[in-house]
Amino acid sequence: MRAYDIILKKRNGGKLSKEEIEFMVNGYVKGEIPDYQMAAFLMAIYFRHMDPEERAILTEVMADSGDRIDLSSIPGIKIDKHSTGGVGDKTTLVVGPIVASLGVPVAKMSGRALGHTGGTIDKLESIPGFRTSLSEEEFFENVRKIGIAIVGQTANLVPADKKIYALRDATATVDEVSLIASSIMSKKLAGGADGYVLDVKVGSGAFMKTLEQATELAEAMVGIAKAHGKKAVAVLTNMDVPLGKMVGNSLEVLEAIETLKGRGPEDFTELCLNLAAWMCHLAEKGSFEECLAMAKEALESGKALEKFRQLVEYQGGNPEVVDRPTEILPMTDKTVDFIATQDGYITAIDTEKIGIASNYLGAGRKTKEDTIDYRVGIEILKKLGDYTKKGEPIAKLYISEKSDVESALKLLSESYKFSDKKPEHKPIILGIVK
Questions:
Q1: Which domains, ranges and CATH numbers included, belong to the chain?
Q2: What is the pTM of this model?
Q3: Which residues contact 360 (CB under 8 A, 6 or more apart)?
């Protein structure tokens, strides 16, 4: 078998066999297939695409390239949640404790920030002492004892994806549905859960800018899950505005805690409750409607808040962060207001630019080696549809001595559009794919 023949076959629109896909992926991971041939293979997929069977095979081959986590020793149906990445997306910090408090085990591996989107692991690490690197024994033991553990991805989880993604990033082949779906779902398969709730973001702050693109990706991921005998549902959610009000690590932890106390922003609370309900439904705790009622009760009763406290304590963090978050979390006292330059309704927000602006302040990273400043970020004071007067603050920037405030303010000024007419309200949940 030759790489040349496989590249030619896909370039001409042919359907690849399992053996051919294995030959390309495994050969590249082992260093037997050079970058230039793998780049040509990826470009052929980019233009010719893959059918559902090819996607399922590619996902499995990538998942098998490294460690597979076996969660069978943990009782119950294990449901994982994945977000395709957004601005202000701290849902895991709320959804995980809700679901765990309802008896659904949460054994979750999460990622770090890169680009304009934040990372769950960075947010948790803003809590003093919180450990996101646990031994496999500790990870399993915590889930058995308190029903939840959230850790960073292991070094040898899906090495094929790490290597292929780096090449895709350098060869303009990132934004192809089969490659995106197999990248995400290979990590999900390797994680060992029985089912997945996929939060697929749509809009200016998401990788998928249109509902049509997001639906195609959602259908591809759900199809891959089902092809491997896993339960799955995808929730299409609005990312034309930052989720909630806070963007930045400590700020987002603060907002998550407020939400667990029943004082969170309406859009963020609604999304968390719906994602939790779908996770419980896939775990066979009842109908979606019954599970939604259970999730609301877990939030209102304080059960979910106490589960978050346990999560923090069991992973080495200071549990008093629940009671005194503004004292415990690293936060700056230096702020700058972003001021409206005209009267009118906010009719559009370029949410990706909000995420990039927070990075200019120090809340994110351009490369994996960059250091994050947990103290900084942006508080959104006015959202889509709100009326604002000239001279009124639209956002508050939390800054440090290293923040590039000028660049952040310039981006914010480019992000907002105003009109005399109030825009039509867009719900947080745009659709469901099952």
A1: 3-48 (1.20.970.10), 79-162+190-322 (3.40.1030.10), 331-419 (3.90.1170.30)
A2: 0.94
A3: 403, 404, 405, 407, 408, 411
